Amino acid sequence: MKGRVIVLDHIDGRAAAALLVDGRLEDILIDAPGEVLRPGAILRGIAQRQVKGLGGIFIDLGDGRTGFLRQTKGIAPGKPLLVQVTGYAREGKAVPVSTRLTIKGRFAIATPGAPGRNVSRAIADADARSALAALGAGIDLPEDVGLILRSAAEAAPEADVLADAQSIAEVTRAILSDAAGPAADLLLDGPDPHEVALSDWGGADEVDEGPDSFARLGVTEALDPLRRPRALLPGGASMVIEPTAALVAVDVNTGPDTSPAAGLKANIAAARALPRELRCRGLGGAITVDFAPFPRADRHRVEQALKAAFRAEGDETVLAGWTALGHFELQRKRARLPLAEVLP
After folding, report:
1. Dist CA 147 CA 105 (whole Å)
2. CB of 322 closer than 8 Å to CB of 328
3. Is the N end or the C end of the chain the one with fewer CB atoms within 10 Å?
4. What's the CA gap between 28 and 21, in Å, rounded?
5. What is the reported pTM?
6. pLDDT band at 2 (very low <50, low <70, confident <90, very high)
């Protein structure tokens, strides 16, 4: 199967979406079990106590839920706030939230508190930018709300872009007009995997949402290796990916050939494969990679391979660099739950 295919299905009754590129699984999203606040959800909150050591403040989200906002300036205990969930809460931890709201549609994003009308910088064609800018200028927005037309708008029919932008503007108006009130009111639910896939993956040659799509297109089978810690690499090499409470540990092994040349080859292969493995396994936070033994003089080659591999991830991942013990550290945004927690 050639091209980019978005596959929409369900696992254990929960929405799930997969991205296939030339028949290979490149990303997978599965809705969390139970009543979990999805990233993107907007709620009323009440500021609680500041925690100076953590550089933030706890937020009462109602229903026994607590959020954590990495911001303290101008926020006093008891102050009502509109907050947006930015990630899933780790076990025993507060839900990460932000006061910088973004209301996303398939082709448009509304930005309360950040006025201005913009077109995605990913759209390079001058005529397309001009046409979209003119379209965006005609959208009736609430006061102090900005609008961004996304890269997917370039290839979409103008009527679809206009309808999406107008819908997002109305949703934003409703949220802002309903800002006063007690904590716990969910003003906007976070998008489910189907909505995220259609909104964020974009550029698909085909969307398949027929019966048993995962089984028919091989997604179910492709999930099996992701359940195991060992990921196979070319030439008999492998890497073991093991999440712990503090970090994700990655150990690269060369296989039968333990020569320095084999170590370098395995490490470059691991660097190229690591973004997909972390993405599909839903792993984030602090990540430490213990590369196979290889000449120190070749560190720059491994680092270049990592930079090239993670370039498409944008600001999701920060490459911190080498440690004194020769490990490589990176930090990845926790935008989803680990696959092991959402697979039945």
Report:
1. 11
2. yes
3. C
4. 12
5. 0.89
6. confident
